[in-house]
Amino acid sequence: MARKKLIAGNWKMNETLPEAVVLTQEISNIFEKDWLETVDVCICPPYIDLKPAKTVLDFDHLGIAVGAQNVFYEPKGAYTGEISVPMIKEVGCTYCIVGHSERRTLFGETNEDVNLKAKALLADGLSPIICVGESLEVREGGAYLDYVCAQVRAAYAGIAEAEAKDTVVAYEPIWAIGTGRTATPEQAEEVCAAIRETLTELYDQSVADTIRVLYGGSMNEGNAEMLLAMANIDGGLIGGASLKAQSFVAIVQAAL
Q: Distance between CA 165 and CA 152 in Å, rounded?
């Protein structure tokens, strides 16, 4: 089944408000609107940059989506420092990253947290980009497929078939994030295919065939074309390369 590719830029904790406006405008200036007929594109700035980035895109009538990098699963309450799904929806987000390895490793997020966040996003009509991936230790131990597929099962626990179709999975091998070390296309395809097989087990083939699986480990303009040529890689969750307009747009072009 031909799935429309998705290129999502994760800015992480980078870009002040003025810098975010400049970067978004630079992307807009070199972006061809008709590309969006072939590929979906999303940028995920820090919370405080979401509204100004969305304003730039709206002013330029450019249909690049905006997503958040994280969210809390309660709609409101005494949760100091957290941001809710209704808040990011009001800003104009249509996507939100959940379960990024940095959230799991640095901030102790669990599979249960990821599941609750995904459910909260789906309940309010937003699409979660559910991140899964293994450490170098797990990779070298040989059990990486079992490990990643267990993360997928946990993330989708209690999510109905109709809602699952609105999700995205991002495979991000931790050993390849920000290290400059990228999984080979064959390594990435092996895991992405296993993820789709797991989704088939959880739902059925038709549902699994609608869910996009992205690769998210140091994808850049030099390797994007080879990775995106793989049958089960439906796009990329881009880190460092998303902070340079020319590089990010070049990856989008590789997905056309």
A: 14
Which tokens belong to 65? 């989506």
CB contact at 8 A, 38 and 256: yes
Among 102, 109, 134, 172, which one carries the catalytic annotation?
A: 172
Own/partner long-range contacts of 53-57 (Cβ < 8 Å, ≥24 apart):
53/20, 53/21, 53/24, 54/91, 54/92, 56/21, 56/24, 56/25, 56/28, 57/24, 57/28
Q: For 66-75, what is each residue's pLDDT tens digit?
A: 999 999 999 9
- Which residues are bridge partners to 8 per DSSP? 42, 237
pLDDT tens profile 112-153: 999 999 999 999 999 999 999 999 999 999 999 999 999 999
The DSSP string of 192-245 is HHHHHHHHHHHS-HHHHTTSEEEE-SS--TTTHHHHHTSTT--EEEESGGGGSH
- Phi and psi at residue 147, to the nearest 5°: -65, -50
Q: Which of 100, 102, 134, 221 is catalytic?
A: 100
User: Known catalytic residue: 172?
Assistant: yes
100 is catalytic: yes
Give Cα separations from 63 to 40, 124, 152, 175, 218 (angstroms): 9, 21, 30, 33, 25
3-state DSSP call for residue 130?
strand
